[in-house]
Design brief:
1498 residues; mainly beta; five-stranded mixed sheet; 9 helices; 10% helix; disordered N terminus; disordered C terminus
């Protein structure tokens, strides 16, 4: 049917044919007309199984169309097969009589996939949508057609038989077809996961261009399809639109695949080209639209409604004619949670008018993304409160949460940030959990899992990540990688085709494993090509249908794939992507991937067994560091096509680098608990995920993360800071390759509210008016901007016949009072006024224009209104009201004031007076208020003529005592000074204490001294008297009304003066109470110190209530200058146990202090006294001033030494070890009172207990040093420390085996422990990397070094403390030089090892008798085998029958002379030579004739 909608438009309320352009509508109409005219009979519409209807045009009456899986087709639009009309059946009518029409449907590989089913009149079960009327019409049409040529009764009988036969065949075929369909659907559903059918974004409806009037709103919207759900971004002139940066201007929404951008109140700057970009893992699409803003010359209705979404309404409430006002109150603030906790965010929503059963549109967003109910998010609406519950916090839940309440009259939003901290690590020092685990690509072979790195590494760098998988429906997690990967992306293989999986990630450092991340969304291991879409069904002209794939175009070999590129390359895998060829027909194609090592022309097919169906493929098991090129071939049933052009050479390795550190980090004040941090983005960063911000209190060196979820952009508000603390900030950038190094620290910033210009004043009123001037009064702004208001500026304008003129400045210099006379006005003219407040931040915006005032002289007798009313000292039952007298006095002077009160919101009749009798003051304390009630006040002035007009009404004041409120306290210090003290805990940095007497600021500093320290203020009376009687008040600026007062009456002053007098004459103050201490020889000293005492002071010493006097046992001293009083006893005896008291008197002042010495306290003191006496006796003979200890010399010798005193010539010192005297060969010496014993080359055998005995005729003393166990270890650690400090810098040298790193120490000890490090990790030694010691040289040998061996090396000496580390950088030129030298030495060693050599076997001289045979053999070595040359008398000789020269096995050279004669005598030599060198051996042959000759010669 023409009115039927495609599936993607059925659920969109906004869809309408008006979206079609006029050209499209004309084309559709023309097509329909041509379709109707192309058939000989009228076309009829047929439908099937809920699919879109198709029009059947043919020369026959159409039959009802049935199709594959008609019942299941209503519930699914994604199947492996597509029901369609089969064009081949059209040709069946032209078959010859011998040919049989087939009833089988085949796919592109000619496999039977269904049956051609003839359809008859009675099949209502499979008619799929036809009514009885249509069926009757079809029957009548069919009967009419056949009745034209075959109108006989015999024919009717034949037709009846044929009909019965066809019914039987049809029912059989239908049963077969239905059974096969059900089976295939069941099998298909078992291995398919609908949620994983991934395809690139596609614009179903693109945004349209608009032309709008100025100040109107416009909405651009589009409808998208794609899976995974595409990420949508809107752009204006290719610049990303950020709704947060332009609050209220832009509104971006996404719901059910419909995405919209609303631009509020358009102006000329909004004329631009807009485009929307949609992107997911399968691709990206964009669509463009233009907006033109025009200005309407005439009067325009600014209330024209903006385009808005339609929201479902609950109940039967009509919105027509109602204007709603929405207020969001009782809001949630910036919130902090921890992983695993539950958090609820809620706001109370007030909608006026309040209609029953009316429900507004309530939506929750996180970072401008609409949240849907899930196991992680639960939304609740109770009628007046919206609540969002985060059931299990994870770091993915961190972000800006926004509540949006929508009515037909508009919408209101409220936002606040939620921070989620890491849960406590299961292992101390372990990193935080990764976050945002996603599946980027999926097919039957692999799934690419990506994640984001955590902000917290536990104090140690993260070594990598482990990925776990779990099959959906089970709880069994399997680790996917054996070794941790550092790249935040990993292809997971080993999946079972058709099954769905979820993934999680864990981070690991050297301390342990993190908690697992939040589980990813499930994904199915299925090729994208298997997710074919089900097409609609239509019947051919024969009334038959089939189930098949798209019509194949057989015999067409596909062309070359297009745009082949390497989209991702790491050291673990490479991902290729391409586009299908243009020449491929309608048949599905598959692909073969081939690789080739760069520099060769050998192409190897990667997927030899099964071709891939999707144009994306991941290659594994490539050699890291090698370069490869890739190409792809297409194939189908017709064959394999030509390969695509190869890619550029790609080196296997991580192409993505860790981003550079951000720059120019700037922190600025924001609120009392937050700071705005901005920075310059990392340069040349690829695939940037976001940024982590860290903060530290200045001086603490402890860094804490501000966010646990990477934030995009270059600005972030860091919350949760402590007011008054100073912080610094650093920023790190994040991408899949890792986290950058930290940026430089920002400048320190103090956390406090930023200074802003003040809010506008309000409540402008006229206080006096004369012929050419007016005195205006106004109220202080509610918000002063965090800084004192420095003044006000007044503007005025004339109003003529209701038309306002231009504003004029009334004052150039600011005025500090909240009243000002505006001069040079015109009498009987009307004026409006506005006032602006100024502070350090600047001048604020002006107030709203005042009412229109007439400038005419006042002549009334009563006074004008008082002004500048202020409420202070608010408590739950009282407050103080202040005011200033009227500027206009009237006929007589003002002689009193009346104060009125009423509840806020009450009618005018509720005003009532506070004071029945006029008060002459300018303040009044109002009591008996109802706690929790809000009140307003006004003041009227009177003179002899009567009571004048009332002042402006104050703002409503709530009667409550705020938390932390304190009152003024009276204090009299020790010097008798009377002071008033006030403390305020809610002060800011700009706050000040203001003291007043009778509510006028104190300016007389001769009677009162004001002092402020931190949050405390003190007002001290310098000479208190009757002049000081009055009400004293103190208020604190830049607070929420912190203030208090104290009424100093005459009676109260009298009491304070008496207390002051008592304090002026106190008891004698003591700096210290009575104490005891021991002196030399065990003497006991009792003492105390008086803080101040005159020369007339005296002391009585009392023991157990008995007075003591000076004598042999007690010695007393009293230093009146210092106040020190002491009594000394030579020793303590048991009789001295008791209480000692010192009694002091100085004029009228007295004091005493006692010390109780009884029980254990006395015994301990007595014992210590006796010990001190013995010590003194010991020191009368030879003794140890410093007991035996040790030190280590720079030569690593251990010297045991002690310092002795009071020795003489015959004093003897004996050394012992383990109770045995040390041998006499040990050198003993006295030098300046120090006794030493040197131990060279210390080892374990030197461990033991050492004693030294010092004695002479006056006595002896002994000192012991235990150098066993821990004592020996401590000593050796000192030795190791000296050795470590003596080590030279780590140097690089080369050998014929490789590169050697070495250092020298002054002395090496076998117990020394050293550790070699490479890149801060301990080296595991192997045959290739070894360490050792030669003499005082410690070395590390690297055999056959490669580029992988470059880096930072270190040797660490362990001394039991911090140790010492020497480092060297083996990289760059140093590495190149070392490798070059190694290669040279290696070549030289090879040459030396393989050069030609004569190894022996030849004598120097051979004496032989003539006629004998001479046989000499020598060994030859060399590689390659040397060339051998024999010389006689330096001339080359050759082998013959007499002289036989042999060289066998490349090792043995033989020299044989048969039957020597005298001619054979001479000097022979052998010369061996190969490419590595030459060597020779010489010998002399002497031949004699007879033995006698030999004997004669002897």
């Amino acid at each position: 049917m023409p009115g039927s909608l495609p599936f993607y438009q059925k659920h969109q309320r906004h869809y309408d044919h008006d979206y079609r352009s006029s050209e499209t509508q004309a084309l559709v109409s023309k097509y329909r007309a041509s379709s109707r005219s192309s058939s000989g009979y009228p076309a009829h519409t047929c439908t099937s199984g809920g699919y879109p209807a198709h029009t059947c045009n043919s020369g026959y009456a159409p039959h009802i169309c049935t199709g594959h899986g008609l019942t299941s087709a209503r519930t699914s639009t994604s199947r492996g097969l597509t029901a369609s009309s089969y064009s081949g059946l059209e040709q069946s009518s032209q078959l010859t009589k011998r040919a049989k029409a087939t009833h089988l449907a085949v796919d592109r590989e000619h496999h039977i996939i269904g049956y051609v089913v003839p359809i008859f009149r009675g099949s209502l079960e499979f008619a799929g949508g036809y009514s009885g009327v249509e069926d009757s019409r079809l029957k009548a049409t069919s009967a009419s057609m056949w009745g034209q040529d075959h109108f006989t009764s015999g024919l009717e009988m034949e037709r009846s038989e044929v009909s019965s036969r066809k019914v039987t065949i049809r029912e059989s075929a239908e049963r077969i077809s239905l059974s096969k369909t059900i089976y295939e659907n069941e099998e298909h559903n078992k291995r398919m996961n609908k949620d994983s059918l991934m395809h690139a974004p596609e614009f179903v409806i693109k945004p349209r261009s608009h032309t709008v009037w100025e100040n109107q709103s416009v909405r651009l919207h589009c409808t998208l399809s794609g899976w995974p759900n595409p990420h949508v971004v809107w752009y204006k002139n290719n610049v990303t639109i950020d709704p947060i940066a332009h609050p209220g201007k832009y509104k971006i929404e996404s719901s059910y695949s419909v995405h919209s951008l609303e631009i509020d109140r358009c102006d000329f700057d909004d004329t631009a080209q807009y485009h929307v970009s949609a992107m997911n893992a399968k691709g990206e699409q964009s669509a463009y639209a233009s907006v033109v803003v025009k200005r309407f010359k005439g009067e325009m209705d600014t209330s024209a409604p903006s385009p808005r979404r339609s929201y479902p309404r609950v109940g039967l409430v009509s919105e027509y004619g109602i204007t709603f006002k929405t207020h969001i109150v009782d809001t949630f603030g910036v919130s902090f949670g921890r992983e695993g906790e539950t958090m609820s965010l809620g706001c109370t929503v007030i909608i006026h008018p309040n209609l029953e059963r009316y429900q507004p549109g309530v939506e929750w967003y996180r970072d401008d993304v609409l949240l849907a109910p899930s196991k992680w998010h639960q939304m609740h609406w109770s009628g007046d409160r919206a609540t969002l519950t985060l059931t299990h916090l994870n770091k993915e839940d961190e972000g800006l949460y926004t509540l949006r309440v929508t009515t037909k009259s508009g919408y209101e939003t409220y936002s606040a940030y939620v921070f989620v901290r890491d849960a406590d690590a299961e292992v101390e020092g372990a990193p935080g959990a990764p976050l945002d685990v996603r599946c980027l690509d999926a097919n039957k072979d692999y799934v690419i899992v990506s994640w984001k790195q955590p902000a917290v590494d536990g104090g140690n760098s993260i070594l990598g990540y482990f990925v776990d998988r779990c099959e959906v429906g089970t709880n069994h997690w399997i680790q996917c990688n054996d070794t941790p990967v550092k790249f935040a992306r990993l292809p997971v293989t080993g999946l079972v085709e058709g099954r769905s999986y979820a993934f999680r990630v864990r981070a690991v450092n050297k301390s342990g494993m993190s908690r697992p991340s939040r589980t990813s969304e499930p994904v199915a291991a299925v090729d994208a090509a298997d997710r074919a879409r089900v097409r609609g069904t239509s019947a051919p002209v024969t009334g038959q249908i089939i189930v098949t794939e798209e019509e194949p175009a057989e015999g067409v070999v596909p062309g070359k794939p297009l745009e082949l590129e390497v989209t991702e390359a790491t050291k673990n895998y490479v991902v290729l992507s391409w586009k299908p060829p243009g020449e491929r027909g309608h048949e599905g194609i598959m692909y073969y991937v081939e690789k080739c090592v760069s520099g060769t022309d050998s192409w190897q097919r990667v997927n030899t067994e099964i071709p891939v169906k999707s144009p994306r493929f991941a290659l594994f098991d490539l050699a890291e560091g090698k370069s490869y090129s890739f190409r792809v071939r297409c194939c189908n049933s017709a064959g394999v096509g030509e390969p695509s052009p190869p890619t550029e050479a790609t080196t296997v390795g991580d192409k993505l680098d860790v981003p550079a550190a951000p720059e120019r980090v700037v922190a600025t004040r924001n609120t009392d608990t937050s700071v705005v941090v901005s920075w310059e983005k990392s340069r040349h960063a690829k695939d940037l995920v976001g940024y982590y911000i860290e903060t530290s209190v200045v001086g603490s060196d402890t860094w804490e993360p501000c966010n646990n979820k990477p934030v995009p952009g270059s600005r972030f508000v860091c919350h949760g800071l402590v007011t008054g603390e100073t912080y610094v900030f650093k920023v790190r950038a994040v991408n899949a390759a890792g986290i950058s190094v930290s940026s430089q620290e920002s400048e320190p910033v103090l956390v406090k509210a930023a200074i802003a210009s003040p809010a506008p004043p309000f409540g402008i009123s006229v206080l006096e008016c004369v012929r050419d001037s007016m005195v205006l009064g106004w109220k202080q702004p509610a918000f002063v901007g965090g800084s004192d208001i420095t003044g006000y500026f007044v503007d005025y304008r004339e109003v003529i016949d209701g038309m306002e003129g231009q504003w004029h400045e009334a004052n150039i210099q600011s005025v500090s009072d909240r009243a000002y006379r505006v001069c040079d006005l015109k009498e009987n003219k009307k004026y409006q006024f506005q006032v602006r407040a100024a502070n350090m931040a600047g001048v604020g915006i002006p107030s709203l224009p005042s009412n229109t005032f007439l400038c005419e002289e006042w002549t009334i007798a009563v006074p004008g209104p008082p002004h500048d009313l202020q409420v202070t000292e608010v408590r739950s039952s009282s407050l103080v009201l202040l005011w200033k007298p009227p500027v206009y006095q009237g006929r007589d002077a003002v002689n009193g004031f009346y104060v009125d009160i009423k509840e806020a919101g009450a009618s005018e009749e509720a005003w009532r007076g506070i004071n029945k009798k006029a008060t002459d003051g300018k303040f009044i304390k109002i009591e008996n208020l109802q706690e929790g009630e809000k009140y307003v006040f006004r003041v009227r002035a009177q003179n002899n003529a009567g009571v004048g007009n009332a002042s402006e009404v104050t703002e409503p004041t709530l009667a409550e005592t705020k938390a932390g409120t304190k009152e003024i306290m009276v204090d009299v210090d020790d010097d008798g000074v009377i002071s008033l003290n006030f403390e305020c805990s809610a002060m800011s940095a700009e706050s000040k204490f203001v003291w007043s007497k009778n509510y006028e600021e104190i300016s007389d500093t001769e009677r009162i001294a004001v002092e402020t320290k931190g949050s405390k203020a003190k007002a001290s009376f310098l000479a208190p008297g009757e002049e000081d009687i009055g009400i004293y008040s103190c208020s604190v600026t830049h607070t929420d009304g912190a203030s208090a007062s104290y009424d100093l009456t005459a009676e109260e002053l009298k009491k304070l003066l008496e207390t002051s007098h008592d304090h002026k004459f106190p008891i004698i103050p003591l700096k210290s109470e009575l104490a005891v201490e021991l002196q030399e020889k065990g003497r006991v000293r009792f003492w105390l110190q008086a803080e101040k005492i005159s020369a007339n002071g005296k002391v009585d010493y009392v023991f157990n209530d008995n007075s003591l006097s000076a004598g042999e046992k007690y010695k007393m001293n009293f230093d009146k200058n210092t106040g020190v009083i002491e009594m000394i006893m030579e020793s303590l005896t048991p009789k001295d146990e008791g209480t000692f008291t010192f009694q002091l008197q100085d004029g009228k002042a007295t004091n005493q202090s006692s010390l109780v010495l009884i029980g254990d306290v006395f015994k301990a003191l007595q014992k210590e006294s006796e010990f001190q006496m013995k010590e003194w006796v010991r020191k009368q003979g030879p003794h140890f001033v410093e007991y035996l200890g040790f030190e280590v010399t720079p030569e690593c010798c251990v010297i045991l030494k002690c310092k002795v005193g009071n020795i003489k010539k015959d004093t003897v010192a004996l050394w012992q070890k383990d109770g045995q005297d040390i041998k006499s060969d040990q050198q003993l010496s006295f030098t300046e009172g120090v006794l030493k014993l040197e131990i060279a080359q210390i080892s374990k055998k030197d461990a033991g207990v050492y004693n030294i005995v010092l004695k002479d005729d006056r006595g002896k003393d002994t000192s012991t040093l235990n150098l066993t166990d821990q004592g020996f270890r401590d000593m050796m650690n000192e030795v190791f420390s000296v050795i470590a400090n003596s080590s030279t810098a780590l140097k690089i040298t080369s050998t014929d085996e490789g590169i050697r790193l070495y250092t020298f120490v002054s002395y090496y000890n076998d117990l020394l422990q050293v550790t070699w490090h490479y890149k801060d990790s301990a080296i595991s030694f192997s045959d290739r990397i070894k360490s050792g010691v030669v003499g005082e040289q410690l070395w590390l040998q690297i055999k056959e070094p490669t580029e992988k061996d470059t880096g930072k090396y270190a040797i660490e000496f362990n001394d039991g403390k911090g140790g010492l580390r020497r480092t060297v950088e083996l990289s760059g030129q140093a590495f190149d030089d070392a490798v070059a030298e190694f290669k040279r030495l290696k070549a030289a060693a090879i040459a030396e090892r393989n050069r030609a050599r004569v190894k022996g076997g030849l004598p120097d001289v051979v004496t032989i008798q003539e006629g004998k045979d001479l046989n000499l053999t020598c060994n030859i070595s060399g590689d390659p085998v040397p060339e051998v040359t024999w010389l006689k008398n330096e001339r080359e000789i050759v082998s013959d029958d007499h002289l036989l020269l042999k060289f066998e096995s490349g090792k043995f050279a033989s020299f044989i002379i048969t039957k020597v004669n005298s001619a054979d005598s001479g000097k022979y030599s052998i010369l061996v030579k190969n490419k590595f060198g030459t060597e020779s051996g010489e010998f002399t042959v002497s031949v004699f004739n007879h033995p006698e000759e030999l004997g004669g010669k002897k």
